[in-house]
Design a protein that fits this description.
single chain, alpha+beta, 5-stranded mixed β-sheet
Length: about 625
């Protein structure tokens, strides 16, 4: 179809104001982007103290004050023009640039979508200079008395771009994003004092620290970081320096895994995968460690200009970098102190502990999902438990008769009594009700051995089975908004960062649906007043952090159905009996009866098999009887 000449679109040159607003859309996404750009400019100016103040989540006011080298009046005006910078002067400088950005690139973008005031005084000047810019247009310029350094105020962010303003989140969420942005900068600059005030109250205060290790531990104290293991190594010219949390600190999102390349925070899926691979089997699939990674490569092997906000980098030879990260972390974790702690936990539960007729709950502070630690418990259990009676195993018809399943009221956990019971569907083809099968014994304190009706062998993973039961009951109760909860006699304080604390206030409905009652208590703490009954005997903090992480990652303070199922499966995993826990015959019968009574599947919610069958014909073939 031919376009009529009168309706053909014409190529025009956009006005400078519109060009600036388009550029601002690439660099200035939200208040946190503004804080990041301004603070990086302060660091490039040699600042040793950076004070940030925000109001209204950063939309009303962002003020950044530093004690850096300052700007002269001419430099201040030039800094507000596009493509003005003190960082590079030729194309070769783009490779291996060691500064955070090109000062002057962010300022005009910010000034085009706000009311900006820039005041600065160089170290060799007797007075400072103030510029006011509104929507990219200079409205005032004058001399002013002020201390050495630079002060920038950004007011009414996005006042002239309502489309961008519409996509901003709530005030508390945006304030949390600002705090997160400042934390990332603080982690990589331990010699700089960072301070953030939100609506007049101090939200973050990190004075200068002696070294990187001290800064990382101080900055992440509110993230639940316990023992942080330091890993240092050099491979193929790639320097790796990492601080690694234990497997119990892992979460379902990667927001607690901080990746830095040349002191610059980056997002890199391959680098994140290399960190997870370094953890190996210590880390459950789908979980991410609490870790801070610093990688340094030669400048000529690094391109930092592939993203408008400098959040991505490109390596000239990526595989050696990822390999170095993986190898250094893996070798260091083999000597990590928390592995010894996990080994000691394996022997902390005496055989037979727990009330009669009730499945044992998870131990205080324990956390499942770590394959290596679980195997350690299984191994310890197999040495300590009574040996399996081989004669009884291979000649089951001479053993005792099948166990009598207790009455339903005795077969369930006391803390689960209020959960609704789901009617049981027909069992899988070829498998009778599990409670009707003859129980032969337990292998490695983990696998329940049952004789099938045909004389074969059925092995049931006690953790996966219990997890399946609890997950099904939780899902049904959650749909009915009737998850039983346990009110705490004394509230449990939990330290949270700004983003998580903001989520507590915004996601009360979702948290209550899951059985939690929380309330903010100051700027750094929340009080846990009630927990789901399943968590009544375990530390609820790891689970709560998981839930808040998922809520903080979403666009709204709710969970999509798929995310909700993941949370419920994690809650069930936290509460289920472990591999290595000792179950006496009545409790085994209770677990099998519960498994028969729910809409169970052949796999647990995390995808591991609940049971494995060995037909009699297969056993006879292996023993040469066919």
């Amino acid at each position: 179809m031919t376009v009529a000449p009168s309706s053909r679109p014409r190529i025009i040159k956009l006005p400078p104001t519109l060009v600036d607003q388009i550029a601002a859309g690439e660099v200035v996404e939200r208040a946190a982007s503004v804080v990041k750009e301004l603070c990086e400019n302060s660091l490039d100016a040699g600042a040793r103290r950076i004070d940030v103040e925000i109001e209204g989540g950063g939309r009303s006011l962002i003020r950044v004050v530093d004690d850096g080298c300052g700007l002269s009046p001419d430099e201040a005006r030039l800094a507000l023009e596009r493509h003005a910078t003190s960082k590079i002067s030729r194309a070769e400088d783009l490779w291996g640039v060691e500064t955070f950005g090109f000062r002057g690139e962010a300022l005009p973008s910010i000034a085009s979508v706000s009311r900006l005031r820039l005041g600065s005084r160089p170290v060799d000047a007797d007075e400072g200079f103030v510029l006011r810019i509104e929507a990219g247009v200079e409205t005032e310029a004058r001399a002013a008395g002020m201390p050495t350094g630079t002060q920038i105020e950004v007011r009414d962010l996005f006042f002239n771009t309502p489309a961008r303003l519409k996509f901003q989140k709530t005030e508390s969420t945006e304030a949390g994003n600002v705090s997160e942005s400042l934390l990332r900068l603080a982690l990589a600059n331990p010699d700089v004092h960072f301070r953030l005030r939100t609506n007049g109250r101090v939200a973050l205060d990190l004075p200068p620290h002696r070294d990187l290790a001290e800064r990382v531990r101080a900055a992440l104290a509110r993230r639940g970081a316990g023992v942080l293991h330091e890993a240092v190594g050099d491979e193929n010219g790639v320097c790796v320096h990492a601080f690694l949390g234990g497997p119990e600190c892992a979460s379902t999102t990667a927001r607690n895994t901080f990746l830095f390349v040349g002191r610059r925070f980056v997002r890199d899926r391959s680098l994140l995968q290399a960190v997870c691979m370094g953890y190996g089997e210590l880390l459950e699939r789908g979980r991410y460690p609490l870790a801070v990674l610093f990688v340094d490569v030669p400048g000529e092997d690094l391109d930092v200009n592939v993203h408008p906000q400098k959040l991505e980098v490109r390596f000239a030879n990526p595989q050696p970098v990822y390999g170095a990260v993986r190898h250094v972390i893996g070798a260091s974790l083999a000597r990590a102190p928390f592995l010894e702690l996990e080994s000691r936990k394996a022997h902390s539960l005496a055989p037979g502990r727990g009330g009669k007729g009730a499945l044992p709950m998870a131990r205080e502070g324990s956390y499942d999902g770590r394959a290596a630690a679980e195997r350690s418990r299984m191994s310890a259990g197999s040495r300590a438990a009574d040996p399996v009676d081989l004669d009884r195993l291979f000649h089951p018809r001479s053993a005792e008769g099948p166990l009598e399943a207790p009455q339903p009221a005795k077969a369930v956990l006391p803390t689960q009594a209020q959960l609704p019971v789901v009617s049981a569907p027909p069992p899988p083809s070829g498998v009778a009700g599990l409670a009707s099968l003859r129980y032969l014994g337990t292998l490695a304190r983990t696998y329940l051995l049952l004789e099938t009706e045909e004389g074969g062998l059925c092995l049931v993973d006690q953790h996966a089975a219990h997890e399946r039961v609890l997950f099904q009951k939780l899902r049904t109760a959650c749909e009915a908004r009737d998850v039983p909860r346990q009110r705490l006699l004394f509230p449990i304080p939990i330290e949270l960062d700004e983003a998580r604390l903001a989520t507590v206030g915004e996601a009360q409905d979702t948290l209550q649906t899951l059985g939690f009652e929380l309330e903010a208590f100051g700027l750094k703490t929340a009080l846990v007043r009630a927990v789901p009954e399943l968590l009544a005997h375990v530390d609820p903090k790891p689970m709560l952090r998981d839930v808040l992480d998922r809520l903080a990652e979403g666009e709204a303070p709710t969970l999509a159905p798929a995310e909700l199922e993941r949370v419920l499966s994690t809650l069930a995993c936290h509460s289920a009996t472990r591999a290595g826990d000792v179950l006496d015959p009545p409790r085994v019968a209770g677990l099998l009866a519960e498994l028969d009574a729910v809409d169970w599947r052949s796999h647990c919610p995390h995808g591991r098999p609940v049971l494995v069958r060995l037909p009699l014909a297969e056993l006879e073939r292996r023993f040469g009887r066919t």
